[in-house]
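As described in the Methods, two query proteins were run sequentially through the folding procedure within a single session, without resetting any intermediate state between them. The first query and its resulting C-alpha cells are shown here.
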Amino acid sequence: MTTWNLSGVNSHILICNGSSCMRKGGEEVTEAIRREIAELNLDSRIHTTRTRCNGRCKDACIVIEYPEGTWYKEMTPELGRRLARNHIESDQGLHDSVLYSYEDSQYVQISSESEKGKDKPIKVGG
C-alpha cells in the first residue's frame, strides 16, 4: 500500500467502485479521471480514491468531489475527464450530472430526476 503525502492537494475525488457502479462503468470512469489528471499534470493538486458503495446505486456511477462536497450521478468516462479539466477550465458542462451539493452546512438534492431515496433514521441519545 502507498502512503501519499497530500500536502498541497486541494481536491479529493472519491470514485465509487461498488458493484452497481462497476456494472455501470466504474472502472472505466476511474481510469478516465486518473488518466486526465495525469495528462493535465494535476497529480499534485487532485487526489483520487476508489470507494465501495456510496449508497446511491440507482444513480451509478457516483463520483464525489471534496472539499466542495458535490455528488455527481451517472458519470461516464467523458464526464470524468470533464471533471478533471474543470480544475483548470471552469464550467465543463457537469451541471446535469450534479446530484447533491453542499450548501448551508447540509447536502441539498439538486437533481429532480433522481429518486429521493430513503430518509436516514434519527437516533435519539447518540
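Immediately afterward, the second query was submitted; its sequence and C-alpha cells are:
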Amino acid sequence: IVRNARIDVINDSTVTDLSKGLPKSAYTTSLKRFPNSESNHVLADCSSTKKVWSPCQCRLEICVGWYPCGLKYCKGKGESKDSAMSYRCGIKTCRKCHLFSYYVPQKQTCLWDE
C-alpha cells in the first residue's frame, strides 16, 4: 500500500509510525522532506496563510474514535462483609489521534485547514 501511495512531506515521528514492521526500502521512495527555505524562516501554517497560491504547512488530524484496548474490571462485594473482589465486566475502549503536518505548494490544496 505504501508503495502506491505518495506522501509529500513527513516529520520524523511519522516515519517512525510508518516504518513499524516494514523494511526501509518499502517506504523511503514514497517520502520527501520539506523543501529547504533560503530565508531561514519557518513555513506558515495554511490556516494563517491568506493567499491561496502560497506554499504552506498543511495539517490534518485523523482519529480512531473507538477501539477495544483492554478488559474492564469492576469491583464487587466479596463473600465476607469487608472483602472486595474484582471481576471482568466488559471491554475497555480507547481513542487515538495523530496529527499529520506536511508541505503543500499552494494553500488551495489544503482547504480543510481553515
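The longest strand covers residues 56-77. We note this only descriptively and draw no conclusion about the first query from it.
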